[in-house]
Amino acid sequence: MAWFTKTRKPMAPTDKVSRVPEGLYIKCTGCTQVIYNKDLAANLSVCPRCAHHFKMTATERLATLFDGDYTTYDAGLVSTDPLEFNDTKPYKSRLKSSIAATGMNDAVVTATGLLDGIETVVAAMEYTFIGGSMGVVVGEKVTRAVERALARRSPVVIVSCSGGARMMEGALSLMQMAKTSAALARLDRARLPFISVLTDPTTGGVTASFAMLGDLNIAEPKALIGFAGPRVIEQTIKQKLPEGFQRSEFLLEHGMIDMVVDRRELKATIARALRFMGASPSAAAATATPAGPRGPATPDAGAVPESA
Ligand SMILES: [Zn+2]
């Protein structure tokens, strides 16, 4: 799994010493255009020239989907490293450095807030946290988010960005596929909508569980979506894969997903779909009261830091 690829590459070093402070500009991986970082942020991290979709952090994602304030949950859940796993380095120290780098305790943020006036439960995955991989904590948080939606009778939106199940938690991470799927089945029986948004990349156990279970599965343009990676498949079947294999557009053409939507149209599309599926603006939206404190710094409502 390509867990550690960065797409937001800083400008390639040149022979000449640059007078531009590092991090002000970014070179588009789609068209090599140099873009001012602030312009990119204002355009929802979509290249203004070629519409290349850069990865977003979970927090940026929530900000683009919610109308304003939102409340996060279960931020205190931390993996206990149940297998005491070691690969090139101990899983414990991987967790520690990811926590330090992202300020998050695991690879998903779950929140409630208003999405175009509709009270919605949104989960957004964080790719920079061990490749957005799903271990026990991600599975538990997604399950709790769905259960929260059941209790509130709200729709669910999950934005996936993940290398799949977290191998450092072995079979325990695979169990999360069943757990999240079972929770979504309960949501389905309660006739509440679930929209899955698949972003670049969505692979492995995440694709094989909740990411493909949406009443509507929406992908961002040119996102890599699949189960096994193309290299593994080519080696296994000993055949060259067709052009664009496992990209959103290819999957749409072959009936694996329902829509490919530009990020700049995403919120409006989700809101339209939720309304079509019967969601109505909440009373909170009508009276325009803020839903609560904003962002990941929010203390958990009712959640005691605990391990999963
Ligand atoms: Zn571009």
Ligand identities? zinc ion
The end-to-end span amounts to: 24 Å
Question: Helix share of residues?
Answer: 25-40%
Give me the side-by-side strand order of the main sheet: 3-4-5-6-7-8-9
Give the H and E element order: EEHHEHEEHEHEHEHHEHH
Radius of gyration from the alpha-carbon trace, in angstroms: 19 Å
Summarize the structure.
By secondary structure, this protein is of the alpha/beta class. Helices cover 32% and strands 16% of the residues.
Give structural notes.
32% of the residues lie in helices and 16% in strands. It is an alpha/beta fold and 308 residues long. The strands form two sheets. A seven-stranded mixed β-sheet has the order 3-4-5-6-7-8-9, sandwiched between helices. Helix 4 (136-152) runs parallel beside helix 5 (170-189). The radius of gyration is 19 Å and the shape is globular. The structure holds zinc ion. Zinc ion binds next to loops.
SSE topology:
Blueprint: E1 25-27, E2 34-36, H1 37-42, H2 58-65, E3 70-73, H3 91-102, E4 108-115, E5 118-125, H4 136-152, E6 156-162, H5 170-189, E7 194-202, H6 204-207, E8 216-219, H7 230-237, H8 248-253, E9 259-260, H9 263-276, H10 283-287
Parallel strand pairs: 5-6, 6-7, 7-8, 8-9
Antiparallel strand pairs: 1-2, 3-4, 4-5
Helix pairs in contact: 4-5
Bound molecules: zinc ion.
Zinc ion (ZN) is lined by residues 28, 30-31, 33, 47, 49-50, 52.
